[in-house]
Amino acid sequence: MFSRLFTSKSKHSSNPKGLIKYFDLIPFWENLSEEHRQILKLKYNVGLGTDSKNLTDTDVKTTQSKLAFLSGFLHSPTADSDESLFGKIIDQAESSISQCNDIVDVHFYLQSIIIYYYKKRKNRDFYELAKKSCVRQMEIAPKVKESFLQQDDDSLPRHYGYKQYCIILEKEGKYEEAISICTLAQDEGWNGDWSQRIEKLKTRLSR
Fold first, then answer.
1. Residues 6 or more apart in contact with residue 173 via CB below 8 angstroms
2. How far is CA 147 from CA 23, 63, 70, 93, 110, in A?
3. To which H or E segment does residue 144 belong?
4. Which one, out of 74, 110, 154, 167, has a CA that is 20 to 30 A from the CA of 133?
5. Are 114 and 168 in contact (CB under 8 A)?
6. Are 192 and 155 spatial neighbours (Cβ–Cβ below 8 Å)?
């Protein structure tokens, strides 16, 4: 998730350097509490092939987008994850979407916040945000599909937004809507157990 780093050179300064500087996140970083900074350092350090110095201590360049970088901090949230910190990261991510040239990065960012919000679904506001994020991910699905097929013309991966939205609609008893979403995902070619879900939903609808 924190990858595609290709150059680095050490320097010594009291100001943040590294990817925080590269992505123009110094104001964001300086406004965080020391506790929140340590949390982000720990999350960055578990990334594949990462070097802790690249976050704030070493001047670096990367081909990774700012949105993808921020999305890495939202990976694998827990139900009791820090809402204040995640909210600040999401604010930064949202403001960077318009500058992101890779629709797939937007797709995976939305997947991250769907997972985050749905894990906190006991809070009604987060539940509604999970639903809205599913819709946002589904809305860009055609462009994401085109990008995926340019990279691999054999098949599409699973689509988290379609699946999660189907689950939500089923739990809400909106079986016809859920069938429509499953059918759309299936017609677009996204991998998944759509046929089985449709049959299960039809059974529930006929009761």
1. none
2. 24, 17, 21, 21, 16
3. helix 141-151
4. 154
5. no
6. no
